[in-house]
Amino acid sequence: MVIIKNPQQIEGIRQSSRLAAATLAYTAGFIKPGISTEKLNTIAHKYIVDHHAIPAPLNYGGFPKSICTSINNVVCHGIPSPGQILKEGNIINLDITTILNGFYGDTSATYPVGEISKTAKKLIEVTKKSLDLSIKSLKPGRILNDCVGKIIEPFVIKYGFSVVRDLGGHGVGLKFHEDPFIFHFDKKQEKIILKPGMIFTIEPMINASKNYQVVLDINDNWTIRTFDGSLSAQFEHTILITPTGFEILTSL
After folding, report:
1. How many Å from the N-terminal Cα to the C-terminal Cα in the chain?
2. ∠ CA 171-172-176 to the nearest 5 degrees?
3. If pLDDT is split at 50, 70 and 90, which confidence band does 189 have?
4. Is 7-248 a CATH 3.40.50.10260 domain?
């Protein structure tokens, strides 16, 4: 059941989302060759706690860290580690979710580590653009799939890329994950109508190949990688549907 948030809830989610966005921007400033993903986790954790909030991923379903750090062919849920050192040419997605006064805000972005390949640059550019195009189409009365899957999938396949299908966005705000599930490909039977007060994430995960399949790392039961080893990128915003359009809550 999709929850329509009231004005008090919307303001609480807005404040948490802004903190998530600020945490992402602050932590990303430390990305460079030679830093460990554990260090990035520590930086983000301290920033969140210093702002009187809680990192939502920590202990969520047994997840051991405060943020997700997904490098190169890791699609999502990468676990920070002291031994995981960023190298020149890597790309890394930082995924941040905060709980502030009981409200959730969720955002992520993919960043270059030093100089990266032309393919990696194009992947990051196309992934971000696909999210932007989807968000711009949001409006009350429209069908969710028409604004997300029908826009993102055709756009990225023009570049020889593919949309991960086993994972998607989600409602958010009062809980970490709420209805609806957000498909980033054309899910023809999905007919959810956008209404003011809906809050959800759009977070396309795009692979730098025509293979959208992914595989779960059985060693930690969290890390999800591309099936064929291709690079993957992701961008994510928490979005509010307003009476006239949308508001990007995780925008600084």
Report:
1. 30
2. 120
3. confident
4. no
